[in-house]
Amino acid sequence: MKILRQFQVMASAFALILSFASSAAQAVEAPAPQAAAEKQKVVFQVSAGDPKIWNLALNNAKNVQQELGAKNVDVEIVVYGPGIGMLKFDSAVANRIDEAAGDGVKIVACENTMKALKLTRDDMLASVAYVPAGVVELIKKQKEGYAYIRP
Amino acid sequence: MKKTLLATAMVAAFGHAPVSFATNWFQLQNNEQPGAAAYKFWGFIQPTYTHNEGGIVSGIPATVVSPANGANVAVPAGLQAYNGQTALFNLVGPDLAHSDQLRMFRARPGVRGVIPGTDENINYFALAELGNNGLTRERQAVLTDATVTFNYIPGARIRVGLGRLPLGEEAMLGVQIMDYIDYTNVTNQLLNERFVEPYTNASRTHAAVVGAPMAMSKLKGAFGGYRDVGVEVYDWFNRGRWEYAYAVMASQANGISFGDDLNSGNHDVTARVQAAYVFQGAGPKREDITAYAWHQEGKRAYGGTDYNRIREGIGAKYLRHGVRVGGEYIRAKGMIYVAPTPQFNDIGAPAFEPVDYVALDSGNKADGYYLDVGWKFSPQWEVDLRYDELSKMTNSAYDERKASTWTLGGQYFYSPKLRFALNYEIRDIKVVNPGAQITNGQKIQGTAAGIIGGSVGDRLSAQMTWVF
Known about the structure:
The complex is a heterodimer. Chain A is α/β, with parallel strands linked by helices. Chain A has helices at residues 2-29, 33-37, 51-68, 94-102, 111-116, 134-143, and strands spanning 40-46, 73-79, 106-110, 129-131, 147-149. The longest helix of chain A is centred in the first third of the chain and has 28 residues, at 2-29. In chain A, 32% of the residues are buried. Chain B is mainly beta. Chain B has one domain: Porin, CATH 2.40.160. Chain B contains 6 helices and 22 strands. The model of chain B is unreliable at 1-22 (pLDDT under 50). Chains A and B meet through helix 4 and helix 5 of A and helix 1 and strand 12 of B.
């Protein structure tokens, strides 16, 4: 019984040593914890009614994801004002919106704009999220450290 | 109060913002997007390779058994001469010289835009054809579209000039985004009009064709190309996700020819109505479910007499999440282009040069349909499957012929402006009612027709589409 207890103590100690060794190895091989925490963040503003701008914003978002890796960057597109047509069900870029949302891009519509234009959520693409005010969302995101891009 | 003012200001500010650009063919081909430039050059080319697997004709016998008395009846040497020949439907048109050929099928440069100073209320569209097809069978280059659209009257836009007729879906769609390389037989042969005049070559005396009365004719001018010169009134109306559209066109009935002399002043009236429930998107690949019906009526001058010509159809299509399902039924009365007869290039006596046989009277009928499914299973790849059937001369048991085709297709979308398509067509042509061959003449010609039709082969086509 005593031998068994000694064996348990030794096993625990060995496991502890292995644990430290493993942690030390991870500390050497893994990226610095600080770097992992520094996930890139970018917010795009779309407030123009020109489908060329819509396509440009979607291209930018896709390029950012490809360059940095989709898991390493949070991308959000804030749409308001005359740009709201980008997110309507009959948008010329509807399929690209679905594709971007599927790739992890957050695309939000300004509800203030929708109210002004008497648009309901039924009028919008299914993959769209909503914020009360597009401009306020841009302010919030910049305070949170998002890079701001207006294509 | 502030909120109301803000909302009012926003609505006012967006007054000049583009409306959403949900699209139907009328809108896509006749109108410009808000903010469009005064001119935009564009176009596309479609180099195409076609290979016919059809073999040569064999087995036209020296005699047939008389349906009247069971005796052997001699088959004329002129018919037997086609043993060893290749039928026209196994050759690549419009040249009809080779069974396989690489050609510039379509090459269409164009320009479109809004006329400056009209507050975007007047726009125009022009497109030329430089490719090798039925439109350019007489001239190397032709105009296929030249229209001006006036958008002043709510509910009644007016398009003037040479443009698309509001016909069936396949006839209306832009060929640069067509999912198959060739049209169905039913659309091509009933709606892509062949303009004809009486055959007058006295140096070649053709044997009479038995059966329903048909006129020996020759093609004149270009194929109609689903277009005509005229005035079209049209518009569309959106109610939430529902869209309703109509078009009525009065036209010269001359196809892409601007002159009114081909048809002695006769005119066509063509109308189409459609309703669509839009799931999402815009443009030619909008995700929706659409139902439509159309009707065309007019007269054709032929040999000093006017004949009624009627075409009509009904159909539906569905596109959602990359899955496409569609179908259309089309029927025709009068001015039925039956076929070139004989179905061979002129091989010299005792055979004859082909003559275009046309069933003129409105008692002559034809009908057909197509069913189509497609699946775009990735952004780059799509597979397609289509079945189409065309029955001509359904009013006469002896004359009735049926052509049916299965088309297997695949498309690779290299980029939004560059696409490759591959089609394999399994084709069949049948004499529908052999039992209706009750005279010696019918037995002889019907037997030969069955053998010649049976020589139709499968067809492989490959095409690149580059939109610039």
